[in-house]
Design goal:
about 90 residues, single chain, alpha+beta, about 30% helix
Length: about 90
């Protein structure tokens, strides 16, 4: 279990997901057959948690794990894709 700001994030590898315990907040992913690529394919945060930073905490934990595992990162989930593009544009600024 990792901590990200005010959220504890649990990586449930057997279910291919990151969760905020005791809630429905989740980041789901799929590994390629050769386990060299990860596709983050779904983020969900319930209405009562929206705007709290839960989605960002989930995505940050997922991306940190993927980088530690040296996986090629793909994002079919629009939120993860937006997050990746935002981070990419921040690192390209002079």
């Amino acid at each position: 279990m990792t901590s990200n700001e005010s959220f504890l994030i649990d990586h449930q590898e057997s279910s291919c997901r990151f969760i905020v315990p005791n809630s429905q907040a989740v980041l789901e992913y799929q590994l390629s057959a050769d386990k060299s690529r990860v596709d983050f394919n779904r983020t969900f945060v319930p209405n009562d948690m929206r705007g709290s930073g839960a989605a960002q905490a989930l995505v940050s934990a997922g991306l940190r794990w993927a980088r530690e595992e040296q996986l090629t990162i793909e994002a079919s989930c629009w939120y993860v894709d937006k997050f990746l593009n935002r981070k990419s544009s921040q690192t390209k600024q002079p």
